Design the sequence.
């Protein structure tokens, strides 16, 4: 099959690799219908995270089940399925606690998995899925093709935006600021709106992203950054700041901005993959009672809740995809995201 | 009047200082009935926090109102009152948001206040209280003298323990670990019990403190610290860890222990004054979805809730006082706390 490999700094290729095979009784093989490029893929692509050797990449996909192992019970050949950006059994204590990203038996796409076989990346034609019964969620019947982008966001960005909002405690009437206008930040706007936020500020200086943010429910846009951005946000909320700040970038600067923007007693929900050795400034947080909660989003735990709304059209997170390319053009997909020519690129194998 | 001054490393004295006078219309003068020494006072006493010159100290007191300014409406001469460890107006946006420690017009005992006058420390005979209507809570009538220690804990340690528990999200059925067996840690045990925790582990290697922890509701004691303490705690909770960890010390080591003890998706409620430049390890927290919430406890916001239970005897946080001395012996009070001969010392002017 064809699959994507990251070789190093700005060197991404599509090559022939072995077809995956069922290697445990609980596996499924899924034919990828749509995959995409994540902002976090860019850390490796940009060389910020060094690549030791060519490695499979991609962790978001939806597709159709081609075959299943003998122990698989909930998923059947022919099902249209959504996979979260990791595999998990959904039966261990952590999965049952709602934290399937800490599954005691799970793993990550594109990494050697714990069952002995190679874990495929999602940016390829097929993926072997361990713990298929836990990992995959099947849609009721085959979905309308127009819904595929929205369904694909449940693999990561929509669930991750939702996690930011939940982690920050967004609820009916909350005031919210979203730091980051990538796909996750935009989905965080949508998630906050869905949870009943009364006012949502999107921090963005990019006209097209601002437009999507407004569609998703942003009531205000702030273009300033750093100290000016913080001052502007405070000003919008009576000089105090918002209840909740959703940090969807992961740099030291963005986290600092988030913590300094929240009102005393407020909460930062963070889902940006921490990059650049940022630590949280505990003395500042102690003095203002601003908390930080979040992490790698357990999106598998959210799929059942969000899926009906995507299927009904109540929410349309698929709007974050503004470029679609064949899988063979994956290098262009990375370049477009890297250069911020695209918010998020959908790939069709 | 007589009042305590910190001169420097292990140099604490009681001296004659000017009597306080009403200096704003909203002031009250309170005659101190009982004050005490706080673990955080020891940072200065031990020289960990340098002292630039002699300064008033002490921030926990209860007493009787001697006089009030013309604008005071809620508090009257003769009232028995509890003061939180700061002053606040209870009318600004932050106070109304439940974060009176961030009062827009408040200040701290023993610091120059913002109304122009000198702010007394609590370890003295009298205290001028700014914003008396906001700051002070009067008991209904004169309390039974036996209740004075319990009432005094509402000035800081009981409210602070409660804040740790609330910040960590302790609720009916939560599993809880408390790091720190000082007065705040012990009160955190009591607060967790009160909020319905199903299992509460107190980390302590001190027999008398363990006994108080058990009285307050601890179901288990862990004596180990560091990596061994973490392993023991994980073991007690199915290898996963507890839902909530209450960090009541404030050192780098104790915060690290707290974060590493919590289960994935768990929450650290922290109230130990951060000391030693500790920062929060965001990558670890991101990977495990362990959040950190808390800070300088807005105890004024909790007094009305906790007061009836102290008055009725439903809770007896006054048990944390295991030594009572006349104010004139304040130096011995500090030494006893410093050398851990006493959990907490009550001072009688």
Sequence:
């Amino acid at each position: 099959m064809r699959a994507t490999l990251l070789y190093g700094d700005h060197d991404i290729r599509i090559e022939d690799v072995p077809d995956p095979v069922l290697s445990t009784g609980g596996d499924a093989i899924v034919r990828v219908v749509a995959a995409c490029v994540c902002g976090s893929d860019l850390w490796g692509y940009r060389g910020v995270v060094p690549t030791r050797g060519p490695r499979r990449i991609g962790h978001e996909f939806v597709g159709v089940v081609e075959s299943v192992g003998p122990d698989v019970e909930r998923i059947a050949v022919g099902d249209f399925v959504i996979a979260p950006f990791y595999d998990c059994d959904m039966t261990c204590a952590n999965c049952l606690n709602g934290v399937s990203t800490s599954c005691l038996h799970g793993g990550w796409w594109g990494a050697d998995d714990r069952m002995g076989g190679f874990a495929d990346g999602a940016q390829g034609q097929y993926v072997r899925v361990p713990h298929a019964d836990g990992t995959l969620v099947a849609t009721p019947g085959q979905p309308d093709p127009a819904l595929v982008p929205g369904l694909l966001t449940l693999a990561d960005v929509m669930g991750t935006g939702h996690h930011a909002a939940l982690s920050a405690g967004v609820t009916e009437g909350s005031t919210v600021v979203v730091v980051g206008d990538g796909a996750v930040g935009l989905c965080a706007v949508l998630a906050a709106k869905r949870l009943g936020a009364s006012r949502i500020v999107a921090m963005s200086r990019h006209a097209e992203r601002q437009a999507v943010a407004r569609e998703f429910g942003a009531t205000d846009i702030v273009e300033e950054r750093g100290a000016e951005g913080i001052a502007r946000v405070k000003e919008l909320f009576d000089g105090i700041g918002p209840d909740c700040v959703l940090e969807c970038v992961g740099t030291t600067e963005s986290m600092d901005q988030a913590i300094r923007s929240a009102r005393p007693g407020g909460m930062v929900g963070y889902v940006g993959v921490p990059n650049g050795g940022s630590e949280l400034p505990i003395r500042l947080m102690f003095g203002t009672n601003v908390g930080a909660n979040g992490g790698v989003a357990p999106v598998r735990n959210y799929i059942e809740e969000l899926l009906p709304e995507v299927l009904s059209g109540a929410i349309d997170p698929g709007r974050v995809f503004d470029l679609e390319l064949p899988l063979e053009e994956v290098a262009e997909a990375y370049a477009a995201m890297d250069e911020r020519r695209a918010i998020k690129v959908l790939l069709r194998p």
In short: Residues 2-156+298-348 of chain B form a domain with the Quinone Oxidoreductase; Chain A, domain 1 fold (CATH 3.90.180.10). The longest helix of chain B spans residues 300-312. The mean pLDDT of chain B is 94.
